[in-house]
Amino acid sequence: MIEMIRYDNTPTVVVVLVPLRGGLLMVRRALPGEGFGKLALPGGYQMLGQSWQEAGAREMMEETGVIISPEALRVVTVETTPDRRQNLLFCQSPPVEHQGAFVHDAEVSEIRVIHEPTETAFPRHTRVVREFFMNSGDL
């Protein structure tokens, strides 16, 4: 009998910066646990069989209803969390047009466009948001 080796790989979380209406698109987290009720950048796990670009576009659609082009996403920075349990891939889309209301899933309680740096649910998000505004909306 052949023994199966089980690998415990580090998952990738794709976090997306979307310039919109002269600001930056943010979500208020509705998931219980860390960051509940606080603002964060949209994002989530890259699923098996998806490129990181496809994961970013999917998460953006699920959490905000905003459609972005996966091909237009570019990497801003990649970091590993201090506990080494996740790789965070921060990426940015070109500015998008989105008229009308936002639509979100159960992971989000509110969608906002911010026009200046703000404290977020996660220190890394806060730093990337601050850098976005310091660089006039382009990282």
CATH class call? Alpha Beta
- How large, in whole angstroms, is the Cα Rg? 15 Å
Structural class: alpha+beta
Distance between the termini: 53 Å
How many domain modules? Answer: 1
Named at the architecture level, the CATH assignment is Alpha-Beta Complex
The fraction of residues assigned to DSSP E strands is 25-35%
Q: Level of helix content?
A: 10-25%
What is the strand arrangement across the widest sheet? 5-1-7-6
Mean pLDDT: 93
Q: What distinguishing features does this structure have?
A:
139 residues, Nucleoside Triphosphate Pyrophosphohydrolase, four-stranded mixed sheet, four-stranded antiparallel sheet, 8 strands, NUDIX_hydrolase_dom, NUDIX domain-containing protein, catalytic activity, NUDIX_hydrolase-like_dom_sf
Which secondary structure elements does this structure contain, and how are they paired or packed?
Layout: E1 12-17, E2 19-20, E3 23-29, E4 39-40, E5 43-45, H1 52-64, E6 74-80, E7 87-92, E8 108-114, H2 123-134
Parallel strand pairs: 1-7
Antiparallel strand pairs: 1-5, 2-3, 3-4, 3-8, 6-7
What does this structure look like?
With 139 residues, this protein is of the alpha+beta class. It has a single domain, classed as Alpha-Beta Complex (Nucleoside Triphosphate Pyrophosphohydrolase). It is 18% helix and 29% strand. The chain has 2 helices and 8 strands; from the N terminus they run βββββαβββα. The protein has helices at 52-64, 123-134, and strands at residues 12-17, 19-20, 23-29, 39-40, 43-45, 74-80, 87-92, 108-114. The strands form 2 sheets. The chain has a 4-stranded mixed sheet with strand order 5-1-7-6, covered by helices on one side. Strands 2, 3, 4 and 8 form a 4-stranded antiparallel sheet that branches. It is globular and about 60 Å long. The termini are far apart. 29% of the residues are buried. The model has no long low-confidence stretch (mean pLDDT 93). GO terms for molecular function: catalytic activity. Residues 7-139 form the Nudix hydrolase domain. InterPro entries: NUDIX_hydrolase-like_dom_sf (IPR015797), NUDIX_hydrolase_dom (IPR000086).
